[in-house]
Give the backbone structure.
Amino acid sequence: MRKTARPAHITPLALAAVIVGGLTVTTAVPAQARTETQASVQATDAHYLRFDKGSVTNSRLELVKRTAGRDKVLKKYKAGSGQTKDTCAVGKGWLPNAEKKPYAVQWHRKNFDGIINGLVIKLSDRKCHNGTKRTELFIHSEMKPNGKQGSIESERWTNSNPNDYYSNGCIKLNPTDIRDLFKRLDRIGWPKKLYVVS
């Protein structure tokens, strides 16, 4: 009796590839991160984020609930974006507007480890008015990967000298506010969209 060979079964290795500031990090996804993602509240259209641009270091990120008639702002956070109002300045300009076609909220992490750390929300890429593509767009703060304050400037929030609301083109919140935002969104559901207005 002839035995037929059984096809080999290969177990796929879970990998996460994250590109931040030109730095590529490929690493196995820890079991804790997988559990956190699976256990998190599903993305929803019941809420959205809106970034209302005032100045580079003094704008507002709003958590908004869709309601019949006028939508309800549930919470406002002081936020910064970029170092200049030139939306086409890669790594320096604040976010291009997105009133009708919002940014996608692609993912969020509580223990991100890269050029930026800790509590991080990834936004979709966007072209500015002259066609320049803006990439590596996040909502984040300054902290260590574990969410605590560190000793180096990029991991320690100071509010002044330097003003930590300046960013490399992302939306930046202080650590207390981004923790509050994550806590609320874990409870009510993560939005799929970010609108940017001025």
